[in-house]
Each structure stands twice: as C-alpha cells, then as structure tokens.
Amino acid sequence: MLLCANLNQPWNSTLPTLLLLRKCKTSNDVNQIHARLITTGFIKNPILTTKIILAFSPSPFSPLVDFARYVFFTHHAFSSPIQDMDPFLWNAVIKSYSHGRDPERALGILCLMLEYGVSFDKFSLSLVLKACSHLGLMKEGMQVHGLLRKLNIGSDLFLQNCLISLYLRCGFVGYACQLFDSMPRRDSVSYNSMIDGYIKAGRIDLASELFGFMPMEYKNLITWNCMISGFAQLENGMDLALELFEEMPARDLISWNSMINGFVKCGNIEDAQALFNKMPKRDVVSWANMIDGYAKVGKIDLARRLFDELLERDIVVCNAMMAGYVQNGYCAEVLEIFYNLQSDDNLQPDNATLLIALSAIAQLGHIDKGLAIRQYLEENNFSLGGRLGVALIDMYSKCGSVKNAMLVFEGIEDKSVDHWNAMIGGLAIHGLGELAFNLLMKMERLSVEPDDITFIGVLNGCGHAGLVKEGMICFDMMRRVHKLVPKLQHYGCMVDILGRAGQVAEARKFIEEMPIEPNDVIWRALLSACRNHENIDVGEPVAKHLITLDSCNSSSYILLSNMYAGLGMWNAVGQTRMMMKGRNLKKIPGCSWIELEGTVHEFFVQDKSHPQVMEIYSLLDSLSTSKSEVTPCKYHV
Length: 637
Known about the structure:
The longest helix is centred in the N-terminal third of the chain and has 14 residues, at about 25-40. Helix 7 (about 120-135) packs antiparallel against helix 8, helix 13 packs parallel to helix 15 (about 255-265) and helix 28 (about 470-480) runs antiparallel to helix 29 (about 490-500). A hairpin with a 2-residue loop joins strand 1 (about 590-595) and strand 2 (about 600-605). Residues about 1-10 and about 625-635 have low confidence and may be disordered. The chain is mostly helical. The protein has 35 helices and 2 strands. Strands 1-2 form a two-stranded antiparallel ribbon. It has helices at about 15-20, 25-40, 45-55, 60-75, 90-100, 105-115, 120-135, 140-150, 155-170, 175-180, 190-200, 205-215, 220-235, 240-245, 255-265, 270-280, 285-295, 300-310, 315-325, 330-340, 350-365, 365-380, 385-400, 400-410, 415-430, 435-445, 450-465, 470-480, 490-500, 505-510, 520-530, 535-550, 555-565, 570-580, 615-625; strands at about 590-595, 600-605.
C-alpha cells in the first residue's frame, strides 16, 4: 500500500508523485500512480514520465517494468519528430528486455527503431548483442554484426568485445578468434573473454598461449583467476595452477577458492587443507569446498567437524554437508540436517537441498518421509517441471510406490525427456515392462524425442517382464528410427532379455556380432543365464573367459560353481572352490533390508548383529518347514 501524497505541496506539483515512485512494488501501487497521473494531468508531462520510465524500467518488480514500457510506448516512442529523438529512453526499454524476462524482445525493439528511422547508438546495439548471447541467437547476432559493418562502426572496441562474447557464448570459438585477431586495438576485456572462451571449450593450451602473449598491464584478477581455474581442469594441472597462484601480484577469495576446489577435485585434500589454513579471509564457498573435499575422500567425520565449526552457515554449506552424507551412505543424517533447516527461520531449503533430501529418502526407502517432502513442495510452490519432478518420481519408484510416481508424472504438464525416463525406469525396476514399453509408444505418439537413457529403461523393463519381442522392437527402433548408436548398456540389456528367456545360444550369437568389444558385465549376464538354464556348453567357456578377464572378481567363480552344482558336477564344484580359496577370494555377503515403523533394518547373510536377533531366529524357526522337506546343498556358494 502506497503512503499518501504530501498534501502540503501545491496541487500542480510533481514532487509527491516522484516521492511515491520510490515506494512502488506491486500492481496495486502502479494503479495508484497511474490514476494520479491521469487525474492530475501529469501523464502528459514528458519530464515526469521520463523519470517514471528511468525509475521503473530496471526494477526487479515486473508490474513496474511493464508500466514503464506502457508509458514509453504510449507517450514517448512515437512522438515527433521521431528521427531526432535521443535513443536514451529506447535504450532503457531495450535494457529492460535484454536484462529481464524477455530478452528476445530486445531484438524486436531494434527492428522497430530501424523501421521507423529512430536513431540508435552503440549502447543500443550492445544490449541487443547481449540478448542474442543470452539466448544463443547466432544468426540474429551475425545480422547485427553485419549492420555494424554496414554502418562503419564494426571496429568499435566496445562492440567488438560484445561480438566476441556472442560468438563464444554460442560455441563459435573460431569466429571469435578471427574477430580477435583482426582487432586493431584490444583491452583486458578482449583478452579475458578469449581466455575464458578457450577454457570453457576445453582448449587450455590456447588459453595458456594467449595468457603468455597478453600484455602485463592488461592482466587483472579476472585473468589470473580464469587461468587458475583452467589449469585446475587438467588431469595433472594443479602444479601449473599453484605456480600461477604463487606468481599472482594480488589474490582475492576467488583465487584461493579456485585453488582449494582444484585440489579437492583431484583428491588432494592435504594441500587443500594447507591452503585453507593460510587463507587471510574465508567465505562460505571456502568452507563448502573443504566439506565437499573431505566427504569425497570418505572422511565424513572431518567434514562434519568443519560443518560444526562454522557458526554462520548458508544453504550452500548445508547442501555440501548433505551431499557428502549421501555420497557416503549416511542418509539418515541428511534428513536430520534437512529437518533442522525447515525449523530455521534464517535458512530456507532450495532446489538443490530438496534434490539431496529426495535422493536420501530414495536410498532409505522411507515412503512416509517422501510423502512429507511432497507436501512441503506443494505448500511452498516448488515447480516439478524440472529436476525436482524427476527426483520425486524416482523417489516414489524406489520406495515401492509406483502409483504415487505415476500421479506425479501425470500431473506435470510440460514434461521433459528426463521425466519420461524416470517414470519408465521406475516401472522397469518393478518388473512392469509392458507399461514401460507402452510409455515409449506414447512418447512416439506425442513426438517426444527419447534418448539413450530412455531405451535402457525400456529394455530393462522388457528383460524383467520376459518381453523378448518388445525388446527387439525397442532395440531396432533405437537404431533405425531415432538413429541412436547403442552403447554397452543397451547391448547388455539385450543379452539379459535373451538370456532370461532361455535363448542362450541367441544371446551368445548376439554378443559375437556386437560391433564393440563386450565387457565383463555382458559376459556375466550370459553366464548367469547359462546357470539359470543349466547350459554348461555355453556357460563353461564363458566363465573361463571371464576368469581370464578378471581373476579377482568372485562372482564369475560363484556362477560357475552354482552351475556345476545344479548339474551335480561335484568334482568341478570342489575344484572351483579350491581355485577361489587359492586366490583368497570370498563371496560378498547378500544383504536385504526392511522398513518397520519408520526404521530401516538391514540384514546380511549369517549376520547376528541385530539387537533382536534371537527373537527373529526364533520366529523363523517356528515358520520353517521340517528338515525332511528342504535339503540344502552344501556346495552352493
């Protein structure tokens, strides 16, 4: 609500209206201002309306920006003589588009100026080039470049820097390089843009070469920091980055944080900690980097210690700690931090927080906590059109609630391929291959372009459901219709489909005809099928081939041993077990878990660590059948 205007001012004074401009935020405020302008006649006062346009056009409040544009186009844009009009107000309106919600409209305003003969300056063109860069409009940007050449202002340094930024942002590094090389004069912006462009394109060598060629007086903090981040991307680039860091004439927080982040990414937490200790000043990014670093090397207790040391946290640090817990399997601790955030008035969970929390819930299988997150999303108006919707579908699927996953999926209006993939994957892990295949067919009808992940999901579903025909159709559609080159995962799915259906010989032939070298996973899928269908002729040579490929993987020995046992070949079983023993190989124990009243209980084979183990075994004994009905084979591994 706007405050009342100062009634001590004369009726025809514009001062009360100017004072009210500072307080405007909402549509209601704008309506009041508009009404006052009309009733006082000030709507025809060019000085006042100019001030309104200049005050409102850069505002973060959209009703004010819209009103500024309305006033401009109604009372200024086409006033005569239009050819002599200063482009200053036009530029303000163009900027409201190029820096706002509708950058593509900036190009339309320039076209309007050209059509009506309105004069424009280099600032007008720079704003349009910024809009083209933001949207990746290469063709339109090149048209503006052509206009600059036509008007003989193409050699202007400011505009040339804008063009370099455009070409780099659109991925045309070669064009940017040609323009840079042809520039009669360059400044630090020119060099920094090219160095940053090379680094983002992965050409650290060219960035380093240009950095060496760059005059020392043009090098600033942006230049040095950019090169440090570039060297940090290289596999063995931290020595070069450290050398550059020590040469820097001055450093800022970005310099220190870039170095720490580089050491963290290559797993060198000791050097990261040493730099962290030397920092003259730290920010939340510094702490988040260190927390992330300790979490990545599995030292989650040290990460938590740092987290607890930082008294003034922001959401970035909390997200880093939560992500570290997820990486290390401490999902309950993730939810503890999340619930603390919900009760903290100074911190609000963002999209990243919620994505991490949903991932933790999916791993725990806590459907009740998942439902609570869903309610939180609805109450706080979070959009499910992006990654949050994908994570929510995935969480429900992994918690066993396909129905809720489908409800979320169907409720999202503008679905991306990631939403489709999440739903197809959810159906696949529950053995609902027919529904997964039907979703793929629906994508075809709606002209939604699938990707390689889509087909992995559908093929997995077909394998679990025994849909050989549908799997073959899917694999063929992928190659012929969508022109996608199958990866090892797709071939592995096809081997699994054929193997589960008992078509072992066909699966072996499929592997032999693969255009790429099959890995151990594909061979193991075939061996598993041989064991299930007791096909010793195919299975034995496959197992021996697998043992040759990876002699330290116990699963190949176990599959071979179980296949021998199923056929009563006890001597071969004994030989396989002796081979495992000789190579000091042990089977990784199986694991299962169950959620009861919000608590997840985990059980390993022959594990007696559960606090209620006696009651559990007692109950199992009372339910078990007599020994005469079940005779376990001691040779099965």
